[in-house]
Specification:
Elements (H helix, E strand, L loop, with lengths): L1 E6 L3 E8 L2 E9 L3 H10 L6 E5 L3 H15 L4 E2 L5 E2 L2 E2 L10 H13 L3 E7 L2 E8 L2 E9 L1 H11 L18 H26 L7 E4 L3 H4 L7 E3 L3 H11 L4
Parallel strand pairs: 1-4, 4-5, 8-11, 11-12
Antiparallel strand pairs: 1-2, 2-3, 6-7, 8-9, 9-10
Helix pairs in contact: 1-2, 3-7, 4-5
């Protein structure tokens, strides 16, 4: 089998894939390379290792050195193309679009060829608009934890608070912060979808992925789907087919 690796800023995920289908997957904290080294040392050698990495060069080097130590394999580092796998990249400089976002768009395009809004809630929140295989561009916001930490570090009277999907008004500072940051993401997604509806693109489904997606999923208006493995799903499709 091939392996595909999604190396994000917070989590490193990998999956065994064959013919575009995921057979199993694993996730560990990006900050702990020992878990990757131990798991890969025990695993059967994959045929290929395709890597979508938005994490820094130290993480990419960990992946490379661990693959060499375990199996003498050289990972293939993927980059976002201008066009491939049925998706046209909407960035002026295609390589600036994170490969995780491009892979999610590939998967979203297979699920909803007419169009979708892809929301990845991780260290950052990214929102990408895809209409009939054409990536219209996107938006980037701070992630939920990043917003909370920013408030805590930039103010004297606000402590770090956990994101809270409760809709009621906060009655103390931690609940006000926790609910406010979730409202910020939910409101941003609603505004983007309203803008699309004003252009005649109402009813476009929203695909939610990333570590924080579960916290906001019930607050996003339908049609919506919670798809935690969307990036790996796209990478699996990219591994199975030549770039068209």
């Amino acid at each position: 089998m091939d392996w595909v690796v999604d190396a994000g800023n917070s989590r490193l995920r990998w999956a065994a894939v064959r013919a575009g289908r995921i057979h199993w997957q694993v996730a560990v904290p990006t900050a702990d390379p020992t878990e990757v080294e131990a798991a890969w040392a025990r695993a059967k050698a994959p045929y290929r290792i395709l890597v979508g990495a938005v994490a820094g060069p130290d993480v990419r080097e960990t992946i490379r050195s661990t693959a060499h130590a375990a199996w003498q394999r050289e990972p293939e580092l993927l980059r976002s193309p201008g066009f491939g796998w049925g998706v046209r990249n909407g960035y002026r400089e295609p390589g600036q679009l994170g490969i995780d976002r491009f892979a999610a768009l590939v998967a979203a395009n297979r699920r909803a060829p007419a169009g979708s809004v892809v929301v990845d809630i991780g260290t950052a929140v990214t929102v990408d608009v895809l209409i009939a295989g054409e990536h219209r561009g996107g938006y980037i916001l701070p992630g939920l934890d990043l917003m909370a930490r920013s408030l805590a570090s930039g103010t004297a009277a606000v402590d770090t608070a956990a994101p809270d999907p409760e809709t009621a008004v906060g009655r103390d500072t931690p609940s006000a912060v926790g609910r406010g940051i979730v409202h910020a993401v939910v409101g941003a997604v609603a505004e983007i979808r309203a803008h699309l509806a004003a252009q005649g693109l109402s009813g476009v489904p929203c695909f939610l992925t990333g570590g924080g997606a579960l916290l906001v999923a019930e607050r996003i208006a339908p049609p919506r789907d919670l798809l935690p493995g969307l990036v790996l799903e796209g990478l699996a499709q990219m591994a199975a087919e030549p770039m068209d």
